[in-house]
């Protein structure tokens, strides 16, 4: 049994209690593994509090230096594209709520949108794009997260590009000098984030179309 988030001490004790209460010996012999940004201090604390954990899966803290910037990424399925003939009993209506998902017909294919509804771990449905909106001086106004097929106002900069498809690189990678120029330009667009002595907030919002889709799936109110 693997636990990868939440209160690991409480959850491990609760899982152990449930497994041990089952009469089947196989359940009582089931081991518990935990993961999720573990380091030596967290593991020490769990052991000192007698957490019934048999093994610890440590990834990020082994492969990176924590004093360097780290972005934790988790894969979440947001949509499935299937042939129209394989859509079983989905309605031919343009958009229809069906068993907790939304399906729409596009170019004889069916896009089935998916989102996770778990408390504090919910996701927004559908492939997405991030549009960087700038003023006439080239200063960032906000980033708008939208569905991938949405278009934004003229002059906005789409940030997400397809680099790898089916295991192959589909876009030429830039030279280091080009990457450096791009990085410096992005910093110049965000002068309000340079102050290090106070909390800074990055302006991010969701498109209306994405919010409407999330409401149809019951992800947001």
UniProtKB/TrEMBL annotation:
Top-level taxon of origin: Archaea
One GO-annotated biological process of the protein: NAD+ biosynthetic process via the salvage pathway
Catalytic activity: 5-phospho-alpha-D-ribose 1-diphosphate + nicotinate + ATP + H2O = nicotinate beta-D-ribonucleotide + ADP + phosphate + diphosphate
Pfam hit, one: NAPRTase_C
InterPro entries according to UniProt: Aldolase_TIM, NAPRTase_C, Nic_PRibTrfase-Fam, Nicotinate_pribotase-like_C
MF annotations from Gene Ontology: glycosyltransferase activity; nicotinate phosphoribosyltransferase activity
GO cellular component, one term: cytosol
Metabolic or biological pathway: Cofactor biosynthesis; NAD(+) biosynthesis; nicotinate D-ribonucleotide from nicotinate: step 1/1
Keywords linked to the UniProt accession: Glycosyltransferase, Ligase, Phosphoprotein, Pyridine nucleotide biosynthesis, Transferase
UniProt KW S-adenosyl-L-methionine keyword: no
Residues of the Nicotinate phosphoribosyltransferase C-terminal domain: 158-213
Enzyme Commission (EC) number: 6.3.4.21
Enzyme class: ligase
Name the UniProt record assigns to this protein: nicotinate phosphoribosyltransferase
Top-level taxonomy: Archaea, Nitrososphaerota, Nitrososphaeria, Nitrososphaerales, Nitrososphaeraceae
């Amino acid at each position: 049994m693997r636990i990868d988030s939440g209160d690991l001490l409480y959850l491990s004790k609760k899982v152990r209690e449930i497994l041990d209460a089952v009469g089947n010996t196989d359940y009582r012999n089931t081991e518990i593994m935990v993961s999720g940004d573990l380091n030596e201090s967290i593991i020490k604390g769990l052991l000192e509090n007698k957490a019934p954990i048999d093994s610890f899966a440590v990834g990020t803290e082994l492969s990176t230096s924590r004093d360097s910037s780290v972005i934790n990424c988790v894969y979440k399925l947001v949509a499935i594209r299937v042939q129209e003939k394989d859509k079983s009993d989905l309605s031919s209506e343009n958009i229809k709520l069906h068993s907790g998902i939304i399906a729409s017909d596009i170019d004889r294919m069916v896009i089935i949108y998916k989102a996770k509804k778990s408390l504090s771990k919910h996701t927004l449905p559908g492939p997405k794009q991030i549009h960087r909106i700038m003023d006439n001086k080239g200063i960032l106004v906000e980033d708008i997260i939208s569905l991938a097929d949405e278009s934004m106002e003229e002059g906005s900069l789409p940030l997400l590009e397809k680099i790898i498809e089916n295991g192959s690189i589909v876009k030429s990678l830039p030279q280091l000098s080009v990457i450096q120029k791009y990085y410096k330009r992005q910093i110049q667009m965000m002068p309000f984030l340079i102050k290090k002595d106070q909390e800074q907030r990055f302006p991010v919002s969701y498109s209306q179309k994405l919010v409407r889709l999330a409401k149809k799936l019951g992800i947001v109110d």
